[in-house]
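Write out this protein's structure.
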Amino acid sequence: MIDIMEKKQFDISGMTCAACARAVEKSVSKLDGIVEANVNFASEKLNVQYDENKLKIEQIIQAVEHAGYKAEESVENKKKDDKDKEIISLRNKLIFAAVFTIPLLYISMGHMIGLPLPGFLTGHENALNFALIQFILTIPVVIAGYKFYTVGFRTLFKASPNMDSLIALGTGAAILYGLFAIYKIMTGTHEEVIAYSMDLYFESAAVIITLILLGRYFEALAKGRTSEAIKKLMGLAPKTAVIIKEGKEVEIAIEEVKVGDIIVVKPGQKIPVDGEVIKGTTAVDESMLTGESIPVEKKTGDPVVGATINKTGSIQFKATKVGKDTVLAQIVRLVEEAQGSKAPIAKMVDVISSYFVPVVLVIAFAAGVLWYLSGESLVFSLTMLISVLVIACPCALGLATPTAIMVGTGKGAEYGVLIKSGTALETAHKVNTIVFDKTGTLTEGRPELTDIISYHGITEDELLQLSASAEKASEHPLGEAIVRKAQEKKLSLFETEEFNAIPGHGIEVMINEQKIILGNKKLMLDRQVDIHEAEKTADRLALEGKSPMYVAADNRLLGIIAVADVVKGNSIKAIKKLHDMGIEVVMITGDNKRTAEAIAKQVGINRVLAEVLPQDKAKEVKKIQEEGKKVAMVGDGINDAPALAMADVGIAIGSGTDVAMESADIVLMKSDILDVVTALQLSKSTIRNIKQNLFWAFFYNSAGIPLAAGLFYLFGGPKLNPMFAAAAMSFSSVSEVLNALRLKAFKPDADKENESYKKVLKSEEKEGDMMKKKLYIEGMSCQHCVNHVQKALSQISGIDAVNVDLENKYAIVDMKEEVSDDLLKQAVVDEAGYELVKIEKL
């Protein structure tokens, strides 16, 4: 029987800490047929990969229930509703608990600071009233926190204790001791009545429960914010679609659209699903998918993508992909899978967490027993036991990694960087070598006309017109580039006769009774055309990685036209930034060495692997890995897929093939290789955030548990009250999530530069009637340099404002009156100490 592997996601309810997540994982992993099971505590999701022949969904759900939790298949929007209900429920429980805890705290401790109490609660003769009223006020608080006991004791009896087990044992011990105290007040001596009425511990139990409910409420609010990226993505899709049914336009819910339905979209409306235009023309804003703000023209036969915006014309299109098959749904799925996946660092933390609670239980009971045996009172020993149980926080460990991964992958999606897994996110920060495929990645992937050099009195446009006319019957990509350029310039083309393509050399054609020859050097020599005066130019163009073609009419040279696969706009900038980050950049291509080296030189790459066959790209990546390097591969084609899979991190360009994107770990939806830099910077920021979280989680527990156990008290230090222990524990969990949320402030360098540019631009537009000069300055390297230049220029009389751009090495000065260049030079060179390259008047 063939194994049929299936992936499913389940919503898990009832988990309260990392130990819960570990228990669910353990229970599900035992099932025969499970390939992989990952629980993300932060998102409360279980991701499983299993063999359909061996396992049913019901069995997975039963395994989760056996561990003491609830599971159901993830349904879009349902989880959000459940989460909202949980937040409301926690808020109500918190308010309910606080209403009884505040008066309980007042009664139990108010008299210690001189606050008045009713007469029936004061004096030793009313000790029983004093104790019973505290017990009565504690009961509603325990009811509000009943889940701590149901979940805590259930998991304890199943030998997988969790955070709730510690709370249940701690507060349970306090309440049991309080009941014992009431018994002693009722039956004991006068001295026992006085002693036990002052050590009831009901207020400790109530305050602990209320503080932990407060912590859980804040945690739920914060965790809700980590999944905002998914909500934003899902919010892009329209809720309804207008289809043509029996010749009429009918509005239906988006979920009811089927493949093959004819959908009508009017200007300004969102396109509901993916499809193909069958009627009309329009321009579509695809910025949500590509990042490109210029609308894309669409006509009959062109594809359209759901959630993009129809700008100008009305169109009808046939639905080709609906529901979970649309591009948007696949993006959402990728982000959800990434947020639910585990980084290697998280798996290590899970192992630690699984031992954490049992170890804490041992420490707590050992502390209580040892203090009692050392001669301390039962009350003192119980205080130590409860404090240890309550202060220990496996939540902090459990939240450290998944919350940061959720925010990090969500932030990536916001910038068009789809990170498919936690492993990819973690590995990316270790990358020290990036291999770029050339065609379609560093370059545009299609030839463009780059140079026109004319001889013997013919103009460039005339040479282009003649060349495009000759090439219009050609199907060669170089010929198409020439024709495209002529069309852009709106040049009319001549009629042609006797077209003859000479494979590997060029073409011959008759135009206006002239024999036009267009091709390489060999063709010209064969046709005895004298190209002596143009050979050096042609060689120079070839060295630049371009394909020069000679053009002749009746065996007389007219000029050279050069075509090349031009470098993408951001390639040079991206390579420079990667070098600045200390990353080695390698270019791999099947092109000849001369062309490859020309492109590499243009973009600033030093290491080139040229003339590599498609099937050998993966081998070349492996060779680099054998040098001890962590390698990322960036590509876009089917031939890049094996290399993308071989690399430590595979990065696919979003405009590339489906195969490349399936093989990759990270997909750049905007097809901008500057986003490679964004992906690496985001990875570094996320891992730094995780390490900060783990440090504080370990530090908190390492310091808190010994403090609670009375280790410091042994040497004359402080003793921890259980109420403060509960407050510290709640704060630690919330602080972990809040620290992870700081990642939401992450901005790629490109965005920062755009903001900087806008500020300068705004500054330039301000006070339009002022005189302005632009000073190009060399030698500035930091903010201190900027301050020196700004100060020196600002002191000149007549200068109103100075704006210095460190990145682009210039300063713009606004002047109320004319200031001489000599004065400006003196300020920059003599006073600030930098080199002034030139001054421009704006």
